Amino acid sequence: MKTMWWREMRSLLIVPMFKCLVAICLVISLLVFVESLYMNIVVIYVKLFKRKPEKIYKWEAMQEDMELGNQNFPMVLVQIPMYNEREVFQLSIGAACRLVWPLDRLIVQVLDDSTDPTIMEMVNIECGKWATKGINIKCERRDNRNGYKAGALKQGMRHSYVKTCTYIAIFDADFQPEPDYLQRTVPFLIHNSELALVQARWKFVNAKKCLMTRMQEMSLNYHFTAEQESGSTRHAFFGFNGTAGVWRLAAMEEAGGWKDRTTVEDMDLAVRVGLHGWKFVFVNDVAVKSELPSQFKAFRFQQHRWSCGPANLFRKMTMEIIRNKRVTIWKKLYVIYSFFFVRKIIVHFFTFFFYCFILPTSVFFPEVNIPTWSTVYFPFMITLFNAIATPRLVLFSSYNHN
Q: What keywords is this UniProt entry annotated with (predicted)?
C-alpha cells in the first residue's frame, strides 16, 4: 500500500515538479549562453574593426600652454581609501605620487581608516615623505568606520579643497597606476563633455601564485575583455569597478555622490550616474597593477560581496530604473536584463542550483531527459569564452613557468 502511494505521488507530483525545474534551468541556461555569445560577438567586432576608444571619442594629449603654463591642466584629486594596509600602503601612495601631472594641479588624498596605531604612524611618515618632495598630499582620518569604504569616500568629498578639483581618480590600496595613467585617461573627459567615467583594466602581479589566483585572473580578464568592453562599446555603460577609474566630479555630485546602502557602492554610483544620461568608456589598453586574494577567506569575502551586493542593489533600484525619464528604453532594458538580471543574479543562482542540485538529483528520475547541450555543449562554450581572455591559462600550461 505504501509503495503504491509513493508511486502515485511520485508520478503525479514529484516528477512533474522536477520536470518543471529542469525546464526553468534549460531556459536560464539558454539565456546565459546567448548573453555570453552576444558579448563575445561585440568583442570580435571591436577587434576586427579596431573600435578603440580613441576612435569613438575625441582624445588629444595634454600639453603645457605657452601663455597659461600649467593652468590648462585641470585639477585632479587622487583618492586612496585604505584600512590597515601594512603590506601595500607604501606602494599605492608611492604610485599615486609618481603620477605625471603638474604638481600644482594634483592633490593626493589618503583616506586612512586604519585602527592599528603602528600602521597609522607609518602612513603618516609616508605621506610626510612625499610632502617634502613637493606633492600636495593629504592624510584624512575619521573617528568611526560608518559605511566602510563608501563612508570614507563620502567623508573625503566633504573637504573644501575637493571643490577645486574637476576630476577624481580612485585607487584601492593594493593598486599601483603607471606614471602616465592620468595622461592617458583624463583627456577623454576633457574633450568629451558627455563622459563621466574612464575605467582602466586591472593587471595582476600575483596571478601565478596559486591555482585560485589563476582562476581569478581568468574570470576577471573575461569580465574586462567581454563584459566591460561590450558595455562600453554598445551602451556606453558598465559597472564601475571601485578602483582604477577617473570620475567627473560634476557627474558624481549630480547623481548624489557615494551611498553606503549596499556593499557595492561602486556599482550603486555607476548605475545612478548612468541613469542621469552620462556615458562611460572602458580603456582596455590602460592597465593598473593590482593583487588578487591569495587566501581563501579573503576570496570568499570578496565573492560574497560581489554576489550578494548586486542583487540587493537591484532590489532597491528596480523601480527607479523603470521610472527614469533621462535614458532610452533600450538602455533601461539593458541595465535591467543584461547588466543585473542575467549577469549579476541569474548566473550565480543557475550555476549552483543546476550543477549542484538538479544534475545530481536527476539520477533518481531516469524518465526526465536533460539535453546534452545544456550539460556539455553550453558549459564548454562558456568556459571556452572565458579561457580565450587569458590564452596562457588554457590547459594550465603556465604551471611550467619557473
A: Cell wall biogenesis/degradation, Glycosyltransferase, Golgi apparatus, Membrane, Transferase, Transmembrane, Transmembrane helix
Backbone angles phi, psi at 179, to 5 degrees: -55, -30
Is 113 annotated in the active site?
yes
Contact between 107 and 134 (Cβ < 8 Å): no
Q: What is the set of domains in the chain, with CATH numbers? A: 53-305 (3.90.550.10)
* The Cα angle at residue 149 between residues 148 and 150, in degrees rounded to 5: 95
Q: Quick: pLDDT tens for 160-205.
A: 999 999 999 999 999 999 999 999 999 999 999 999 999 999 999 9
Grid coordinates of 391: 590564452
Q: Tell me which of 113, 172, 174, 268 is the catalytic residue.
A: 113
pLDDT tens column, 49-59: 888 999 999 99
Give the helix ranges, DSSP H, for 2-110: 2-9, 15-48, 53-56, 89-97
Neighbours of 399 (CB within 10 A): 10
pTM for this model (two decimals): 0.90
Q: Is 266 noted as a catalytic residue in this protein? A: yes
Helix axes 265-275 and 148-156, enclosed angle (nearest 10): 60
For residue 165, which phi and psi values (nearest 5 degrees)? -95, 150
- The counts of H helices and E strands in the chain are 17, 7
Considering 112, 172, 174, 266, which one is annotated as catalytic? Answer: 266
